[in-house]
Amino acid sequence: MSLYNVSKEALIGSAALGAVFAVGLWIGGRQVPSYGILNTFKSHTGAKGNPLMGYVLDHSLREHPVLKKLKLRTLEHPENPMMVACEQAQLMANLAKLIKAKKAIEVGVFTGYNALNLALALPADGKVVACDVNEEFTSVGKPFWKEAGVEHKIDLRIQPALQTLDELVAAGEAETFDFAFIDADKANYDQYYEKCLLLIRKGGIIAIDNVLWEGKVLNPEKGDKDTQCIHKLNEKIHRDTRVNISMITVGDGLTLAFKL
Ligand SMILES: C[S@@+](CC[C@H](N)C(=O)[O-])C[C@H]1O[C@@H](n2cnc3c(N)ncnc32)[C@H](O)[C@@H]1O
């Protein structure tokens, strides 16, 4: 083997190693950081041990005693990570009060923490249309709705949420709702958004949950169908001139769309 050949091979080898290193850096730079975006901001799951989150909760949470009881009961449920973050629910209750909301829609109820939260925020003649397909989940919340004295404000409809939203439109309730929270199956998020836009009045608010999807929206091309649906809707809402928006890093990410 001549000196020339050795140098040439070494050169090719170095170039190949360099290329692998560069590709590694590029892929690494695009990956979701390994410190785990997962539930970083959601107080009852990943962020529980975060001292700053503890400070935020200690200095801002004003949870109704029955809401607190329902949260503790929900934490015993194996699907408890699905529950809305209580600090996020409080923000939504404050927004609902700010716009003097009377009629709200909850798309995805689970054990009904936010349905109760909204019902408590609405006036005595207020109404929350609560949409879910799972009676086992919603039955956990019902006794707490009763205990809080707002059971009469929650109109629970056990059937696919799209059907309920269509029924509300057909019943002539378009543009009569003040607040909507979208928090059910991600594949239908775009349709929930469009139907809620029909049902919400001008100046009303649509809150869309999980818009960061545990950080998976950073790599939508590698994500599953849910990730792609959320990412596409995020892009669409960003350009949507029918609403003003803010994307908040509370919970798993919350977009607030203010209907113009
Ligand atoms: C993330 S949880 C909702 C959490 C809830 N907003 C809270 O306050 O804790 C999602 C819920 O959506 C419901 N869901 C899933 N697909 C649905 C559909 N097609 N129509 C209505 N609800 C659905 C599930 O049964 C589940 O209870």
Topology:
Blueprint: H1 3-30, H2 51-60, H3 65-75, H4 86-98, E1 103-107, H5 113-121, E2 127-132, H6 135-147, E3 154-158, H7 161-170, E4 177-182, H8 189-199, E5 200-209, H9 225-239, E6 243-248, E7 254-259
Parallel strand pairs: 1-2, 1-4, 2-3, 4-5
Antiparallel strand pairs: 5-7, 6-7
Helix pairs in contact: 3-6, 4-5, 7-8
The structure holds S-adenosylmethionine.
- Category from helices, strands and their pairing: alpha/beta
Radius of gyration: 23 Å
- Proper CATH architecture of the largest domain: 3-Layer(aba) Sandwich
**What is the 3D form?**
globular
CATH topology of the largest domain: Rossmann fold
**Please, how many domains?**
2
Q: What string, H for helix and E for strand, traces the elements in order? A: HHHHEHEHEHEHEHEE
CATH superfamily of the largest domain: Vaccinia Virus protein VP39
Helix content: 40-55%
Strand order in the largest sheet: 3-2-1-4-5-7-6
Strand content is 15-25%
Mean pLDDT: 88
CATH class of the largest domain: Alpha Beta
What binds here, in terms of ligands, is: S-adenosylmethionine
How many β-strand runs? 7
Uncertain runs are 1-39
Attribute tags:
globular, Rossmann fold, 260 residues, 2 domains, seven-stranded mixed beta sheet, binds S-adenosylmethionine, disordered N terminus, alpha/beta
Structure description:
Keywords: Methyltransferase, S-adenosyl-L-methionine, Transferase. The chain is 46% helix and 17% strand. A seven-stranded mixed β-sheet has the order 3-2-1-4-5-7-6, with helices on both faces. It contains nine helices and seven strands, in the order ααααβαβαβαβαβαββ. The N and C termini lie far apart (76 Å). Helix 7 runs parallel beside helix 8. It is globular, with a radius of gyration of 23 Å. The structure holds S-adenosylmethionine.
